[in-house]
C-alpha cells in the first residue's frame, strides 16, 4: 500500500498554532515561465507571515473554487494579469507554525497584461541558481524541481 507523503515541516522548533487536528488550507501557486526559461518570484508583503520571503505568486482558495479558478483570481488580484492555460504540476503539503497548507503548484506559460505589483511586493525574474533570498520554506522544493526539469532537457539535447 502506498503511504501518504509526509509533510515538509518548516521551523520545526516552533509551536504549531491550532494543534494536531488543524485543517489543511489549500493554496494555488503559479510558476510563471517566460520562453527563455526565466520564472517569476515575488516577495511576501509586509502584512503577511514570512514577510519579505520570496515565493511564487498565488494564495488560498475561496470556498468552492478549483485550483485554476483560485489561481486565475489570485494572479489577477496580485499581479493584474489575465492567465491563459494553467498546467497543474505538483502538490506539496507543508506544516508551518501558522498553518498546515497544501500547495497546488501550476505552470503558467501564457498570460496577458503588464505585471503590476498590487500588494507592494517586489518581483524578480530568476533562473537557477536564484539570486534572491530568503526563500520561503515551501518554495525551496520547487526550485529543485525546476533544476531537475533543466537537467532533463539538457540530457535530451
Ligand atoms: N503564494 C504562495 N504561498 C506559498 C508558497 N509556498 C508556501 O509555502 N506558501 C504558503 O501558502 C500560504 C499562502 O497564503 P497567503 O497568505 O499568501 O495567501 P493569500 O494571498 O490568500 O492570503 P490572505 O488570506 O492574506 O489574502 C502561506 O501559508 C504561505 O506560507 C508559494 O510559493 N507561494
Entry summary:
InterPro entries: MutT-like (IPR047127), Nudix_hydrolase (IPR020476), NUDIX_hydrolase-like_dom_sf (IPR015797), NUDIX_hydrolase_CS (IPR020084), NUDIX_hydrolase_dom (IPR000086). The protein has 157 residues and is of the alpha+beta class.
Task: Give a description of the structure.
Keywords: DNA damage, DNA repair, DNA replication, Hydrolase, Magnesium, Metal-binding, Mutator protein. This protein has 157 residues and is α+β, with helices and mostly antiparallel strands. The protein has one domain (8-156): Nucleoside Triphosphate Pyrophosphohydrolase, CATH 3.90.79.10. Helices cover 19% and strands 31% of the residues. The chain has two helices and ten strands; from the N terminus they run βββββαβββββα. The mean pLDDT is 93. 8-OXO-guanosine-5'-triphosphate (8GT) binds next to strand 2, strand 5 and strand 8.
Oligomer: single chain
* Shape summary: globular
CATH fold descriptor = Nucleoside Triphosphate Pyrophosphohydrolase
Low-confidence stretches: none
Order of helices and strands: EEEEEHEEEEEH
CATH homologous superfamily grouping: Nucleoside Triphosphate Pyrophosphohydrolase
Number of strands: 10
CATH class: Alpha Beta
Bound ligand species? 8-OXO-guanosine-5'-triphosphate
Rg is: 16 Å
Please outline the major beta sheet: 5 strands, mixed
Please state roughly what percent of the residues sit in beta strands, choosing from under 5%, 5-15%, 15-25%, 25-35%, 35-45% or over 45%.
Answer: 25-35%
The proportion of residues forming helix, as a percent range, comes to: 10-25%
Second-tier CATH architecture? Alpha-Beta Complex
Structurally, the number of domains stands at 1
Mean pLDDT: 93
Q: Provide a count of the helices.
A: 2
* N-end to C-end Cα span: 38 Å
Largest sheet: spatial strand order: 1-7-8-2-5
Amino acid at each position: 500500500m502506498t503511504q501518504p507523503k509526509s509533510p515538509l515541516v518548516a521551523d520545526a522548533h516552533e509551536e504549531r498554532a491550532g494543534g494536531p487536528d488543524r485543517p489543511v488550507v489549500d493554496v494555488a501557486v503559479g510558476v510563471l515561465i517566460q520562453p527563455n526559461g526565466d520564472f517569476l518570484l515575488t516577495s511576501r508583503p509586509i502584512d503577511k507571515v514570512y514577510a519579505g520571503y520570496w515565493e511564487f505568486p498565488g494564495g488560498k482558495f475561496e470556498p468552492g473554487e478549483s485550483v485554476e479558478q483560485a489561481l486565475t483570481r489570485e494572479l489577477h488580484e496580485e499581479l493584474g494579469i489575465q492567465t491563459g492555460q494553467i498546467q497543474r504540476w505538483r502538490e506539496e503539503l507543508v506544516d508551518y507554525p501558522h498553518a498546515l497548507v497544501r500547495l497546488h503548484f501550476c505552470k503558467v506559460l501564457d498570460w496577458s497584461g503588464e505585471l503590476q505589483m498590487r500588494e507592494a511586493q517586489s518581483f524578480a525574474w530568476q533562473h537557477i541558481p536564484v539570486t534572491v533570498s530568503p526563500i520561503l520554506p515551501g518554495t525551496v522544493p520547487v526550485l529543485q524541481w525546476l533544476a531537475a526539469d533543466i537537467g532533463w532537457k539538457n540530457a535530451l539535447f
